[in-house]
Design goal:
The chain is 33% helix and 12% strand. It is of the alpha/beta class.
Amino acid sequence: MSGRKSVNVGIVQMSCSDDKAANLQKAIEGVEKAAKDGAQIVCLQELFTSLYFCDVEDYDNFNLAEPIPGPSVEALTPIAKKNKVVIIAS
């Protein structure tokens, strides 16, 4: 397989609370650690800014959705640039 390059992928799996700002900060710290450890692509867990709510259908949770660009994208974009990584987040 000559000529093929390898890509290092980092995964950030974390506990979340109902504090969106704290969850976002924890995710940023995880991205920075993964980048420092050599990741080129960093994947954040599903619903990384909130508690997992998908086991029930509650329309109030629709308020957790963000526009793109929005607060999470605006916070993660400079982190990706600074660390020269691609971030996959939902």
